[in-house]
Amino acid sequence: MNQCCCSINPKSITPHYSRKPSQSINMVQVPPGRVHLNPDEPDDVYPMFGVTAVPPKKAGTIRIWVDGCFDMLHFGHTNAIRQAASLGAELFVGSHSDEEIIRYKGPPIMHADERYEALRGCKWVTFVVENYPYVTRLKDMDRFEIDFVAHGDDISVDLNGRNSYQEIIDAGRFKVVKRTDGISTTDLVGRMLLCTKDHLQDNNVHVPPENLADTSLRYLTTSRKIVQFSNNTTPKSDDKIVYVDGSFDLFHIGHMRVLEKARSFGTYVIAGIHEDDVVNRQKGKNYPIMNLNERVLGVLSCRYVDEVVMGVPFRVTKDLIDKLNIDVVVAGRNLEDVDASESDVEGGSPSTPYDVPKGLGIFHEVDSGTDLTTDRLIERVVENRRAFLERQAAKKKKDSASELAKPAEYKNIREVC
């Protein structure tokens, strides 16, 4: 990994602790609403936190661990999480602070609290450990009663070039899962920086040679992958069905909170996702950043969603309501929470996608409580363009070196179904 000197605004960093190694345990500043998970180690420079105490482990339970940055949590991350979760009954996830990510990789896009919340909203995650160190420590695995640590088949190294999981490997508690090709935070940043539409489906726009993101490796979604991500449930006769639609581009906690609040209006949540061309007509520029298949997998990873419908109309029609047996339609108060903006003018007056459910008295607005939107995420990248370009170049070199140095046992790893 390469260190990165960047111009990221320090005010955008929310520190999760403030204590020097020599300070006593009483000096640890526990964030509001958090539990200190290692209070017995006053000299640990990594005080770890959770929203609750660590749940007790049941006898005979296999507990798996994964850790990482999980910046802009996308389906590549969640596919690794899904595979890791399948190795046991419980999945613990450790995620790093902003400062730790800057030290090892460069500036993150999402703030620490946003990354932690996104992980808690992932349906395969049992427990999230906040402010976890970049190099995985065996003592922490013992503390959390972890049986095995899982990681993708790409090598993660510390600042000295040593495998950051070496201590775990030496203890015989390491498992390798298949990394998802064709998607990465680096690729998504490249799309935002370079404003190419090449990632959209059925689009043959030329990729400029200076493009640092290898868009030739676009992910090809299969029916098997959708089944792996699906809940495989159907509404019961007594379910109250809630419908939320949008592009869900760069799926983030603004989307997630709207979906979570939507559950309070019913018992079965359906997310309707717009086609690429529909989103592009409404938002212009190079939207959506992620194509339909990528956005579907992102939404299916969310624990608040029961079903996804692909390619829904921009307007919620009576026919759609009847076919899906929808009882309630929900949208974010800030319509960008679900990326559904006001549409054109019909009959001389402004119309919205929700005129029909409003007329039927089944429409509700909810507030996500965050100003985070797809546009705001792109603004963060653009504001720190130089730092992200440097990170892109460093990541490309690192990936090439990792591939050459990959151990034989990491090669030909099959994906866990």
From TrEMBL:
InterPro entries named among the record's database cross-references: CCT (IPR041723), Cyt_trans-like (IPR004821), Ect1/PCYT2 (IPR044608), Rossmann-like_a/b/a_fold (IPR014729)
Keywords: Lipid biosynthesis, Lipid metabolism, Nucleotidyltransferase, Phospholipid biosynthesis, Phospholipid metabolism, Transferase
Enzyme class: transferase
One Pfam family hit: CTP_transf_like
GO molecular function: ethanolamine-phosphate cytidylyltransferase activity
Pathway per the UniProt entry: Phospholipid metabolism; phosphatidylethanolamine biosynthesis; phosphatidylethanolamine from ethanolamine: step 2/3; Lipid metabolism
Domain Cytidyltransferase-like: 66-189, 243-334
Record GO cellular component, one term: cytoplasm
EC number: 2.7.7.14
GO biological process: phosphatidylethanolamine biosynthetic process
Family: Belongs to the cytidylyltransferase family.
Protein name: ethanolamine-phosphate cytidylyltransferase
